[in-house]
């Protein structure tokens, strides 16, 4: 990371500045998916243990965000989407971000081990390492497959929640992992199609920069098909049910249709407009994981009320 592009205004950071450092929007998705992973598990968890476990998973996600912002401050400073983040805008010093990231990493992992179990803590530690080191420090600036491989970091939280409850990893945990893992590339590539210049200026080898728009469009559609297969398959697992299956069929049909329309567009014709199709698919993807995991909760509630016994 280069600190040359970080602005120093002599600004005194507020609590909001530090909170923004933790990527709260990303953290909210982490909290929700981890909570769902915990609640749909076949083993009940003491409410207090469940609450503090999700809290420490959230702190781990915040730690990852702080470390990512510290390392990527030079990139963030030249991208319009990220230039107002705490470090490039001069609201938080890079050294402070690094210190907060390291401190929260250690605290979250140790406390999760004490509150839940060692496997959950080990998975959280690996997730933080994967996002901060494997993705941010290595993959992001070295390969156009950065989002594909790096997407694993965002896919671990529901698995960690499951492990908090069960103490082990199962097929259901992997299905929740794959749902987020396969969703990540089309979500970010749709964004990259109409934000290509940002990544080009920052020197990030996003697929749109290295392979061009047409290859990216093809990749988006292929991943949407793979995503649909895993999503529907989860509907027939022990954590699935009629609500999830209906949700998966409807949402994935719409998502695949949008991705197919993206694939059918060709440059330079596609570059002549405002990327309305790509923007629409990106907006749709923002609700994708939220609605799928909400459907998992709905089916768990049906089973808890004795209204559904499950497929298996």
Report on this model:
The protein has helices spanning 15-21, 24-39, 47-71, 73-76, 94-115, 118-139, 146-150, 152-166, 171-194, 196-202, 207-210, 213-235, 242-264, 276-304. By secondary structure, it is mostly helical. The protein folds into two domains: 9-168, UbiA prenyltransferase (Tetracycline Repressor, domain 2, Orthogonal Bundle); 170-312. Helix 2 (24-39) packs parallel to helix 14, helix 6 (118-139) packs antiparallel against helix 8 (152-166) and helix 13 (242-264) runs antiparallel to helix 14 (276-304). It is flat. The termini are far apart. Mean pLDDT is 90; it is low at 2-8.
Strand content: under 5%
* Oligomeric nature of the chains: single chain
Count of separate structural domains: 2
Q: Give the overall pLDDT as a whole number.
A: 90
Order of helices and strands: HHHHHHHHHHHHHH
* CATH class (first level) name of the largest domain: Mainly Alpha
CATH superfamily of the largest domain: UbiA prenyltransferase
Outline the biggest β-sheet: none
pLDDT under 50 segments (min length 5)? 2-8
Number of E-type strands: 0
Estimated radius of gyration: 20 Å
Helix segment count?
Answer: 14
Structure class = mainly alpha
| CATH architecture assignment name of the largest domain | Orthogonal Bundle
InterPro entries: Protohaem_IX_farnesylTrfase, UbiA_prenyltransferase, UbiA_prenylTrfase_CS, UbiA_sf
GO molecular function: protoheme IX farnesyltransferase activity
Catalytic activity: heme b + (2E,6E)-farnesyl diphosphate + H2O = Fe(II)-heme o + diphosphate
Enzyme class: transferase
